[in-house]
Amino acid sequence: MKTRRVFFLMGAIFASIAPWLLVVSFSGVLELNYSVLDHAHAMLYGFAGALIVGYLLGKRSDFELILLAVIWGLGRIFETFSSQIELTYVLYFLFGLVVAYPIASKFLVAKKATNLLMVPMFILIGGFPLIDYSINWVLKDKISLEALVLLITTLLFFMGGRVITPLLTKALKDNYQPIAHRVQPRLELATMMLLLASVVLTALNISSQSVALLCAFAALLIVVRIIRWEPYKVKGSQGHLWALFSGYAMLAIGLVMYSVSLYSATETTSSLHIIMIGGLGALSTTIMLKTTYGRSELPNALFYVTASLMVVAGLARYVASINIDYYTQILAVSGLCWSVAYIITAVYIAKVPKRVAL
């Protein structure tokens, strides 16, 4: 639990201020050399890394935790205030190197194909900064960050499903309701294969039309999985499950809008923000709170509030891109909803009782 508390707290605090680093940089309030690309790296490499480590690393010694926390913290500092991009990438690589094996080894002993697929996925996510920098240095080219977003989407799909299933089973059992479909391994594997194929094609810059088709089918399977979970059986008092369902649904919505953007050859950033704000936001805040507190009770309204803020933030970010007249105002609403949700999450993680956190 201590690992989760440390990295979830750091991740939540950083996430709450991350959108505004870009704002103050562009406005000139602070003389930061902080670009949109830096912001993307901070969220995809830094914030996502903190979430993965917090959830999957497991119990570690105080020395290991302090070392990892320092490396992660220095990465955020140099990323924001330094122009030495090489040093930032070294810190990215060190962080990924230290955590890659202990996390991947948990899945190496698995027999199921979906679990085994997680091993190369963690290696790719952890090593993506180094791969990106190496290709840029040697070939003077860049791997599209969209490939990494799709890779993280695959991870969110997998981990979200593995969190929802036992919680849903328990909730329905407590309500004396049978659950016909739990993990749904064939559907899970099919969806992951579709998403991973889209990652490969995107990284190689091959056939955006094919990527659009793959993502659309993956979105359809995510919807099918949710329907087969029979969420209508879940009571309103199970706010954490409804929050997880909303985040999972945002993955499907984001993939559909991304497919539409690819097919129509329009900008794709706003559609991917539905996934990275709405999907990641709703899933991460709920998982961070639920796993940090374990069986201890949390206010039911807390999950509805944080998930609703994230859904609004994700959809507002998309709407801003198609409503140029009110772009700044809508973008501010999106950033404010995102920040408030993570501030609330950080406060609850910070005040978790010691008997729960240790």
Automatic annotation (TrEMBL):
Membrane-spanning residues: 7-30, 42-58, 65-83, 89-109, 116-135, 147-165, 186-204, 210-227, 239-260, 272-289, 301-320, 326-350
Keyword Transmembrane helix in annotation: yes
Residue ranges of coiled coil: none
Domain of life from the UniProt record: Bacteria
InterPro entries: NnrS
The keyword Transmembrane is assigned to this record: yes
Keywords carried by this UniProt record: Membrane, Transmembrane, Transmembrane helix
UniProt-recorded name of the protein: NnrS family protein
